[in-house]
UniProtKB/TrEMBL annotation:
Enzyme class: lyase
Keywords annotated in UniProt: Lyase, NAD
InterPro entries: Epimerase_deHydtase, NAD(P)-bd_dom_sf
Record organism: Phocaeicola acetigenes
Entry protein name: GDP-mannose 4,6-dehydratase
EC number: 4.2.1.47
Keyword Manganese part of the UniProt annotation: no
């Protein structure tokens, strides 16, 4: 296991996408667990999905001490520069991104603005945090995605695999983030760690994700479409496991060192964070419906078979996601482990309250 080389006590952490699903949970966990930590959150509060959910997450955060919120877009370079000048963050966690595979087919501009230009602005701000001999950013952590594995057929997906076959613009932007971070780590010695998340789910999650969308449709009496005739497999990862993984990784920045040429060896790492146990989509739907009935979201006599339709694969999707988490276990003594039923039970219980 790696030893921690960053102490979070008393640090200022910038979290982009702070009103998002992962960003809000990470912010809350840091503020509740770490003494005297300050979290500066930025989010553009866009309407890609129901803004009310983002507002509810934000309301909880604003009740906590040492949380500062700025509404703005990371694609606005001046806003990012001003945040760095005012708050001098030692840790930067970039979770702001336009998400969604299918949305990238119809709305590519949003992905270029947020995922490429926005991330470039973050990298530039990190680079200039070292100006005039300042200590600057100690660790940049950024969200990548399991989507970068694209049409790879070898499973489980390893961070050693080549990822040159994206099947969506979303995946291409996430791979671009990894390449950009590598270049900046090499050129400016910025310790950076990319995290490839695998199908994150849980209470107050993203409504565009399958489990949430399925629930909305079933409640409304609509038919849900199960792609690839139910033969898809996903490595569903519970939100608490994702947050635990991020916090552990934050505390060890890749070491700065010089190569034989006297130039910096990029202090750069990439990890998978997934449950390491892909679930068949039909099994997933069966567990979801059972937990929705138990939580009282759906009646016991609900006819699920009448509300399910098996359909072909959608463009941009992949049949399987499956994380090799060996490096995460080796370096941090941790792997996601929340069983799917336990996670979906927590979601169903939250949804029962959310419905009211």
């Amino acid at each position: 296991m790696l030893n921690n080389n960053i102490i979070l006590t008393g640090k200022t952490v910038l979290i982009t996408g702070a009103a998002g699903f992962i960003g809000s949970n990470l912010s809350q966990s840091l503020l509740s667990k770490i003494t005297n930590i300050k979290v500066v959150g930025i989010d553009n509060m866009n309407d890609y999905y129901d803004v009310k959910i983002k507002e509810e997450r934000l309301k909880k955060l604003q009740q906590l001490d040492n949380f500062i919120f700025i509404q703005g877009d990371i694609s606005d370079k001046i806003i990012i520069e001003n945040i760095f000048k005012k708050f001098n963050p030692e840790i930067v966690v970039n979770l702001a991104a336009q998400a969604g595979v299918r949305y990238s087919i119809s709305n590519p501009d949003a992905y270029i603005a947020s995922n490429l230009i926005g991330f470039y602005n973050i990298l530039e701000a990190c680079r200039h945090s070292y100006d005039n001999g300042e200590k600057g950013v100690e660790h940049l952590i950024y969200a990548s995605s399991s989507s970068v594995y694209g049409s790879n057929t070898k499973i489980p997906y390893s961070t050693d695999d080549k990822v040159d076959n994206p099947v969506s613009l979303y995946a291409a932007t996430k791979k671009s983030n990894e390449l950009m971070a590598h270049a900046y780590s090499k050129l400016y010695n910025i310790p950076s760690t990319g995290l490839r998340f695998f199908t994150v789910y849980g209470p107050a999650g993203r409504p565009d994700m399958a489990y949430f969308g399925f629930t909305d449709k079933l409640v409304a009496g609509k038919t849900i479409q199960i792609f690839n005739y139910g033969n898809c497999k996903r490595d569903f990862t519970y939100i608490d496991d994702i947050v635990e993984g991020i916090i552990r990784i934050i505390q060890h920045a890749p070491e700065r060192q010089k190569g034989t040429d006297g130039l910096p060896v990029p202090p750069y790492k990439v990890y998978n964070i997934g449950n390491n146990q892909p679930e068949n989509l039909l099994d997933f739907v069966n567990i979801l419906q059972e937990e929705l009935v138990t939580a009282g979201v759906l009646p016991k006599e609900y006819d699920f078979d009448a509300h399910k339709e098996l359909v072909p694969m959608q463009p941009g999707d992949v049949p399987v996601t499956y994380a090799d988490t060996t490096p995460l276990e080796k370096d941090f003594g941790f792997k996601p482990s929340t069983p799917l039923r336990e996670g979906l039970k927590a979601f169903a219980e939250w949804y029962a309250l959310y419905q009211k």
